[in-house]
Amino acid sequence: MLHAHLTTLHVVSLILGLFVEQPELTDQLLAGSGIAAADLGCSDTRITRTQELQVCANALRLRADLGLELGRRMHVSAYGMVGYAALSSATFGDAWRLMLHYPALLGTYFRLDLQVEGELAWVSAADYRHAAELEVFNVEMCLASLKLICDDLLGQPLPLSAAQFRYAEPAYSERYPLSFACPLGFNAQRNAFAFPAAWLDQRLPLADPVTHNEMLARCRKQNAEFTTRQAWLGRIRQLLAEQLTEPPGLERLAQQMHCSPRTLRRHLQELGTHYQELLDELRFERAKTLLGQEDWPICRIAEYLGFSETASFRHAFQRWSGVPPSRFRS
């Protein structure tokens, strides 16, 4: 994930909230993510998607229907400015057009789309390119949340006509109707749900043109800042990824970014990260890939990732994932 987007701690906080009566699981849930329990109290903290997905993977081992449960808790207000801009839109269709125009602000792992096919409007989530083992989880969380957003926007439940999923029916499918009260189809051609297209013309109960224009202006500004920061962070991650065997260090990386070490450090701090964290994240992702290849012995992986000793790599991997590399491979 060399161009992972930054996101908030919202999903991580929701996950910990699901296990709030089992505080002894906190360390297990955060294991390998680089997120400390103390970070959860900072509203402006930003994490990478790799960190978020690690916590999701940890929690998924404890609860199979995690994606559905999280989706049912992610109201439109969880999406910040773009959520409030959608709430104040004139019609349901206007709100959807707005949200699709600013996908970066939604923080989704998918390419979202809304297409009218005959009398039905289909909301779909496609082009998932992240951890394959978490695809079903992310589809469930995404579509369940989008359905909840529809209900929030309208001030009433949106009646669904159908819901389709590309994967096989899970063992907990009896929980699907809590979000998708309609005919369900698994092993389908897409991940999507449908509703009568006539609802797109429905006026929203919280429509307010003054508030909407103010929120829209903030969305434009936030999106511009977000896009610029992501491009800058993406360049840093690309440079580090190309030099994993011989990491450049902060000063040489700053030279490659045509700025001073102080400026680089400050920008990274504003993005909620730092040099060593980015390097560790890239090493961890590459290590997991190489450990999946039997012809790469652990000593060779350690050398490839710039570790002077195999033992140092083993200790680092244990810190990142909670298990030694040999166990992860098996």
Automatic annotation (TrEMBL):
Gene3D superfamilies per record: Homeodomain-like
Pfam families linked: Arabinose_bd, HTH_18
Record-linked SMART domains: HTH_ARAC (SM00342)
GO MF term list: DNA-binding transcription factor activity; transcription cis-regulatory region binding
Record keyword Protein transport present: no
Any one annotated GO CC term: cytosol
Protein name per its UniProtKB record: Helix-turn-helix domain-containing protein
Ranges for domain HTH araC/xylS-type: 234-330
Record's keyword annotation contains Chloroplast: no
Keywords tagged on the record: DNA-binding, Transcription, Transcription regulation
InterPro entries noted in UniProt: AraC-type_N, Homeodomain-like_sf, HTH_AraC
